[in-house]
Amino acid sequence: MHAAADASSVVTTALHGDVLVVTIDNPPVNALGAAVRQGLLAAMQQAQADAAVTAVLLVGAGKAFIAGADIREFGKPPVAPILPEVCRAIENLNKPVVAVLHGAALGGGLEVALSAHYRLALPAATLGLPEVNLGLLPGSGGTQRAPRLMGVQAATTLMLTGQPLKAQAALQAGLVDKLVEGTDPLAAGLAYVRELLAANAPVRRTRDLAIAEPQAALAWLEEQKAETAKKSRGLFSPLKIIECVQAALQLPFDEGMARERALFMECIDSPQRAGLIHAFFAEREVVKVPEAQAAQPRPVASIAVIGGGTMGAGIAVAALDAGLPVTMIERDAESIARGRANVEKVYHALVAKGRMTDAAKAAVMGRYTGSTDYADIAQVDLVIEAVFEDIEVKKAVFRELDRVCKPGAVLATNTSYLDIDAIAASTSRPQDVIGLHFFSPANIMKLLEIVVPAQVAPDVVATAFELAKKLKKVPVRAGVCDGFIGNRILAVYKQAADYLLEDGASPYEIDAAVRGFGFAMGPFQVTDLAGGDIGWATRKRRAATRDPKARYVEIADRICERGWFGQKTGRGFYLYPEGARMGQTDPEVLAIVDAERAKKGVTPRSFTADEIMRRYMAAMVNEGANVVHEGIALRPLDVDVTFVAGYGFPRHRGGPMKWADMTGLPKVLADIEAFAKEDPLFWKPSPLLVQLVREGRNFDSLNQAEKR
Ligand code: 3HC
Ligand code: NAI
């Protein structure tokens, strides 16, 4: 919880000779909450009124200059003064205002700096307009001032990508006037102000600058519209950003500002803003787990990976990229050669694309060791096992690890489904055994499920969270069950998709509906990409324990029986002629589907995209609620982060539980109850969902609401 502050404590002023130093000190990141805005406005009034002041220096205390508007205020009624007014007061001052940027100058923070008359950067400064990541646009003059300073193309790119610039790039782009070495913003800033005063530098307002080549810029913007609409796939704010820049070109400054404000408010009111901001905070909340708060992580300076297949190699790359030395163990000489090649292939591709030098590749591979001898990992701090998904093979590996690894080494498994308690029990040190469930490709995918078995020591859990940070992963704490959080819920909504398929929707209709919702791919496309044989093997494994009364759809089995495993075999639910990555519809698949329906006596009915999504999402949310209810996920937000970071769930919807909150839990429950009339065994309302509806609460009420 960050306590509400008053203006005089978060913005202080001090005269250094004739320079008024205005310090923004609102930990942790100097966000522009109401008190900061009031403080800045008061400081400008003081500077104007005090004849002893000849210039003003804006400086941030701590690590950041200003990281932007206070995101927690969005969605609540605005409190005066609004930020555009503060920026106007800064720009209108009749004495030179200088901003010194030594850390994050993002969003509203950069907009404050753009309103100053001069900008100095230190090397650690990062300058950006990342509002688009929150479903917004720069709403305090960023869309009007940035194009004036850096040109339309560079400014639009800055706003559409949301990617910040480092100090040097910002200097080249014209966003800052000067870059100096150093880490002390006050000293550097004061020296720069003195330099400006000595040179009689005038007040210089960004608003008065003309935009270079306006006609060419307008034509370029027009071209960007189609491109942006395609790239941003249904996102609201990117096109509004373009509209604002058009206004900057076509309207006088004040009218441009009014246009920006109107479009900013439209973004604020959009559900996408609510979803994206939920995702932002949820990704920061997931690391707050009891064990990581209670215990100190063990040091991890070296890693071993057991198995050099798809996952082992990806995990090795993730660790190498984080600067760690990695020893990979494989079964025999041939397998370790393949494991090494799997790792090298990733860096080779980077070199081929010109994104890595040969020397850098050699340096990274210099930290990689391949071996077939467990004795070589006796001293490593942490081991990640990624051998075949077979409990006996895994237990044998863990017995070996138990024999050779030093005391206190963390022993992790990357299993997707297997019982980690049982794996831990095969060692004499279950307190050191944990699940680290990476997602494929492991060097790219952000999600890392940290699976916490019954006997694991808290400092091992803390170590896993620390490792995730080092590997730049988004960690989610999960309990032990079949499939943990993500794959367990996936299995259920995949089943809902199979029922829809058998009941009358084609795989292509289902995939299109799911894409229409915002996922990059539908479930049958995902099956084809991952390989149909993987799910088939799981289904066979589970056949013995399946409830004979439960509905089972055999269509995928019929497809696998033909050897159609998806992209890698050239056909699955789709056809992939000549190795095409985008599949084409396959009449033979539709014939198989028809035959299976006929065999089951199903008369196919039609489903609209909305009907498809209601079932798909109801299944996802209901199992999500079960996962929270059983304590497999700590909070609903952990389910949300799992799906956004690991399953392609559209970030702008916040996650399945946030989606349910925004849809209304009574509505979701009513759907489930209606579906249950057809199939009560599958559609069983989660007790947590029922309870929340009864109490008139939502999932977010379980997300430590006081943090927001
Ligand atoms: N408002 C409120 N809280 C914020 C915040 C913001 N703008 N930015 C960060 N925080 C909080 C985080 O929630 C976190 O809180 P916690 O400790 O309670 O979990 C704390 O500050 C530290 O944040 P991080 O864990 O992210 O710290 P890092 O050091 O890893 O990163 C950062 C710092 C790069 C500044 C990163 O926090 C960040 O990217 N922040 C958001 C920047 C942004 O999007 N700014 C634009 C806001 S919208 C805007 O300005 C609209 C304007 O145009 C009108
Ligand atoms: P894979 O078949 O590509 O690789 C397994 C590797 O382990 C092979 O190279 C094999 O030679 C090696 N191996 C087998 N027994 C060994 C032993 N006793 N000692 C040393 N090496 C041994 O399999 P993949 O896909 O990499 O999966 C590995 C693990 O990761 C499995 O537990 C799987 O469930 C899990 N996983 C897989 C994901 C995926 O998308 N492929 C995603 C997340 C987890």
TrEMBL record:
Entry's PANTHER family? 3-HYDROXYACYL-COA DEHYROGENASE (PTHR23309)
Q: Output the Gene3D superfamilies linked to this UniProt entry.
A: 1.10.1040.50, 2-enoyl-CoA Hydratase, Chain A, domain 1 (3.90.226.10), NAD(P)-binding Rossmann-like Domain (3.40.50.720)
Q: What is its EC number?
A: 1.1.1.35
Which pathway is it part of? Lipid metabolism; fatty acid beta-oxidation
Stretches of the chain forming a coiled coil according to its record: none
Q: What is the designated name of this protein?
A: 3-hydroxyacyl-CoA dehydrogenase
> What is the organism field in this record?
Acidovorax delafieldii
Which reaction does this chain catalyze?
A: a (3S)-3-hydroxyacyl-CoA + NAD(+) = a 3-oxoacyl-CoA + NADH + H(+)
